[in-house]
Amino acid sequence: MAKSAVSLTPTREDFEALLAESYTENPASEGSVVKGHVVSIENDFAIIDVGLKTEGKIAVKEFAQPGKNSELKVGDTVEVYLERIENALGEAVLSREKAKREEAWTRLEQLSTKNERVDGVIFGRVKGGFTVDLGGAVAFLPGSQVD
Fold first, then answer.
1. Could you tell me if 132 and 86 lie in one domain?
2. Residue 104: in which H helix or E strand, if any?
3. Which of 14, 29, 39, 142 has the greatest number of beta carbons closer than 10 A?
4. How many CA atoms lie within 13 A of 134 on its CB side?
5. Order of strands across the sheet that contains 93-95
6. Are residues 32 and 94 in the same domain?
7. Which secondary structure element, helix H or strand E, spans residue 77, and what is its range?
8. 67 within 8 A of 98, measured Cβ to Cβ
9. Model confidence over 4-57: pLDDT tens digits?
């Protein structure tokens, strides 16, 4: 029986392929909103796969609407903010709250560009005015501007 020779030294083509692979754009970069899939729900945490080596987890309550329970289930596609690709435990660090905030700011920028009116919900009183929820972004509304 003839033995085939296997080379353990990488070739130039191997290095070129690895280098090209490392420069391909990864949509999952730190500080961005990415889509993920709910893999499982364990102990009030949703395990989310965003296409990295490991999954991340987010408290299920971050997906709930104010005053309601979360309707999140396994298999759902969700948008999350990728804070860190990997923490000390080897998990991706994800946040639904920050993803909502990013979406809200994008929407506010679009409305501002079109010079359209912004609607919000007052949820607190502070000195000189109110704090307002603008669909995920929090703003100050001076008392003199309330109609």
1. no
2. helix 96-113
3. 39
4. 21
5. 56-59, 45-49, 32-42, 77-84, 93-95
6. yes
7. strand 77-84
8. no
9. 555 677 788 888 887 777 666 555 677 788 888 899 888 888 899 888 888 888
- Same domain for 70 and 133, yes or no, is no
Q: Domain range spanning residue 134?
A: 117-145
C-alpha Rg value of the chain to the nearest Å: 23
Q: How many CA atoms lie within 13 A of 53 on its CB side?
A: 7
The total number of residues shown for the chain amounts to 147
Distance spanning both ends of the chain, measured CA to CA: 91
Which tokens belong to 84? Answer: 């860190």
pLDDT of 112-144, one tens digit each? Answer: 899 998 888 888 999 999 999 888 888 898 988
124 and 95 together in one domain: no
In a domain, 2, yes or no: no
Residue 44, token pair as written in the block: 């009030």
Within this chain, do residues 63 and 122 fall inside the same structural domain, yes or no?
no
